Amino acid sequence: MKIPKFVINTPKAKIVFGSFLVLSxxxxxxxxxxxxxxxxxxxxxxxxxxxxxKLIASESxxxxxxxxxFDNKGRMWVVEMIGYMPNLxxxxxxxxxxxxxxxxxxxxxxxxxxxxxxxDKLVLPRGLAHVYGGLLYVDGPKLWFVxxxxxxPGKKTLVDPVYxxxxxxxxxxxxxxxxxxxxxxxxxxxxxxQLKNGKWLKEPTSYRGQWGITKDNFGRLYYNNNSTQLxxxxxxxxKVIRNRYFKPTASENQRLTNNRVFPIHQTSVNRGYQKGVLxxxxxxxxVTAACGPLVYRGGxxxxxxNQNAFVCVPEANLIKRNILTFNNNQTSAKQAVEGKxxxxxxxxGFRPVNLFNGPDGAMYIVDMHRGIIQHKAYISQYLTEQLAxxxxxxxxxxxxILKITNKAxxxxxxxxxxxxxxxxxxxxxxxxxxxxxxxxxxxxxxxKDLSVIKELINLAKTGNEFSTAIHALxxxxxxxxxxxxxxxxxxxxxxxxxxxxHALGLMERFAMVSQMAKMKEISAQLLAQNNETLDLYLAIxxxxxxxxxxxxxxxxxxxxxxxxxxxxxxxxxxxxxxxxKEENYLTTQNPNTxxxxxxxxxxxxxxxxxxxxxxxxxxxxxxxxxxxxxxxxTICAACHGADGKGIQDLAPxxxxxxxxxxxxxxxxxxxxxxxxxxxxxxxxxxxxxNEMPALINNKDISDQxxxxxxxxxxxxxxxxxxxxxVEEIKKIRERKPSGNGxxxxxxxxxxxxxx
Length: 755
Fold this sequence. Notes:
Blueprint: E1 7-9, H1 21-26, E2 45-47, E3 51-58, E4 65-70, E5 76-80, E6 98-104, E7 114-122, E8 128-131, E9 134-139, E10 142-149, E11 152-160, E12 174-178, E13 184-187, E14 191-196, E15 199-204, E16 214-215, E17 221-225, E18 228-232, E19 254-255, E20 291-295, E21 309-313, E22 318-327, E23 330-335, E24 343-345, E25 352-357, E26 363-367, H2 381-389, E27 400-406, E28 414-415, H3 422-428, H4 434-447, H5 453-462, H6 468-478, H7 484-493, H8 497-507, H9 516-528, H10 532-546, H11 550-563, H12 568-577, H13 582-588, H14 593-608, H15 627-640, H16 658-661, H17 664-673, E29 675-676, E30 679-681, E31 684-686, E32 691-692, H18 703-717, H19 726-734, E33 743-744, H20 745-750
Parallel strand pairs: 29-33
Antiparallel strand pairs: 1-28, 2-24, 3-27, 4-5, 5-6, 6-7, 8-9, 9-10, 10-11, 12-13, 14-15, 16-17, 17-18, 18-19, 20-21, 21-22, 22-23, 22-24, 25-26, 26-27, 29-32, 30-31
């Protein structure tokens, strides 16, 4: 496809090599020194064959970048978290020295040569997104939206006052991403956002990941935790959480692959002293700080790289590449090249923390480029000593934006979308570059030009391999131009199951008695195709129709259930659709054992008033949350889960744990001194390679804080709540375990903590 005539920028590559360390150690604010071309060597970076790494921005233009976004002109807007761990003690972290800067390439040579501050005096900013003609960004705990007037901030609107409340920066909400469904999703938060009719909406969604979030062309979400390199939802967001008394187990938060990593040198990692963390050569075995995942949708790499999942591994100075495989309604991933990473470096300052698709089709790396990447709440004495010995704690206030290109592929010219007409934007919905499709979708909704509706309807019926039809669907949705008739025509005429899946979801808002006969007919036609994707999303979409007529639609749901009796994803979907109708289904439809158990669980949860935690009303943190809850969510929830049920391959559950229900002094010892696995919890062995961090060395955590954490866990997870005094905790603090100071299961079982 040809780019329309409004193209204004065709960057060409440029790299200037030289030394970087002196510059990084003696830099001052870019406000006070003139720009010079980057002079950092990239010789110690190894890439997959036929790929190039290009340095396009560095100090003096930016410091400590953690995220970015492109505006409609193709310029980079960068979040600078300058306050993050300014020293090994983390002192001064809350200073308002963060900022958002605009980087420009004025001479069009492919390297940024100008920077200007858009917003400053921010506290640990961690995310931004160009949406609705303005900028959504994070400042401290608050989520803001600001209008943009000639590259300067205009009117500000507070979107969420507690967006990132209560967490240290590594475990605070981030990753703002406008999705194909016109909702903004996050990492590390269970709410999504949308601006509609001048009002900001905040709605529960599933809790996802720790740092960074991405999507594929269909609309599935991908994320990760520090020790789980890639996770995903197998279904579209908010589709299997309709039943507030059932938490899906097979369709969301699924690990896709192993966590093996292949660095090319010995790196300094937080638990490097622990058995199994390093191999016999001293190389890291598994990820410990995975973050910033990206599904590549740029269209400028070879075909084999389309919709590959890339993952940042800053502790090992590398970036992984995973090949995604879509098998009906499940996704899996595998290492692209066995024993070799996409990018690996011997530069221990290389700290990739986020990845982005660019308007030119390239992949962009946000390299925080610093020595310390472990937050003070979790840093071990082992790592502190290593960083100090290597003088990595002196590598501060650096930062880079890098661009990855393929030698055999040509980048797209970058259009100025701010000048594009509605017809031009409609054409871009068919572009191979997902960034251009995404932004064109947003701008079409923003323009409210109804003259293109007919063309959008035709695109939604036909589409192409780049999810054009899905984009067209949601432009129509954003323009309030959909109807049951339009959607039913798309369902009947489209040859793409993925498009039909989205259309079925959108049809739910038009569920009414007058359309029931037509929906029954559509359901029969879809079932006759014997397609798993169609069957799954039909089952999901029946939720609204069941509220109109159980006699018509329960048998349809039952037919799907019996067809996929052993597939847990389908059972999740069916339980979701049956919210409030579980008992009727149990008595009339003779469900399979798996579904019967899940429906019974939902009924019991309703009786006990135990909702899926994402639906529990969030209290205003400033006024209502207890300190124990704040501390738990800050320190504990990332591993043990907000609901205390644990996270697969990361940490065991607290609910039902003998360590929660048992001795409070033993529990205090665990929190203070940490635990090294393996460990049995409630009769189950957890073979975890990671270690529960000890809080004894964290000067910011007092004995009262430990008591508050215990009090919260007792209230939330124990069968019978117990308390412990600050005086008792002080005594436990002095009872340091033998060996390396970390408790083992043997010590927990053999020591008499009540003495």
